[in-house]
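Q: What would this chain look like folded?
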Amino acid sequence: MLDLLEVRLLSALLAAGAVLGLFLLRQMASPMARGHRDVRASVPMHHAFEIVWLAAVNLPILAVFAGAGWPELLYAPPLHVSFSWDTGVQALGFVIFGIGGVLSLQAVRHLGKFMTVQIAVAQDHQLVTSGPYARIRHPLYTAAMLTSLGAGLFFLNLAILGDFVVVVAFATYRARLEERLLSSPQGFGLQYRAYVARTGRFLPRLR
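A: My prediction, written as structure tokens:
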């Protein structure tokens, strides 16, 4: 198992990557904020649902900042576990978290002005099929799952692994609602159904 100093240093590296990622997201988001886009169709979501969703996807980010400053909090029993090959699992978690962060940036870069927490279709909406969207319909949800799983494995923390389960459940529910809307006449209809047929929801479809 990684000692506290190693966890602190690696967490600081992940936290620095998260800060850089948030800065880049802010830069990419600036064109999205110009003007108000009219919505032609949307799926109403309960406010509490959105709060839980946002909390779940942001918990791994908070965890790496906590790990950089107070790793003993995440290593505290009974939520922390250890076993004979746990260092390898932690290394795997570190890599998975990084992959999730890179995928998130790529997805936002290609989604552009159509990125929103709301499940909606704008009047000027276009179906994005470039970048990770060429193979996966919901790469941002995949990225959220990867960062949550990666943080849980890196810190060997059952609470964060529980967060991963929540993220998977909520992402699956949201993805189904989005796909129902986007495949409707108010969305992209047959164009989106053809897109569904050639892509995977969270992972690339096997050819």
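The longest strand covers residues 39-43.
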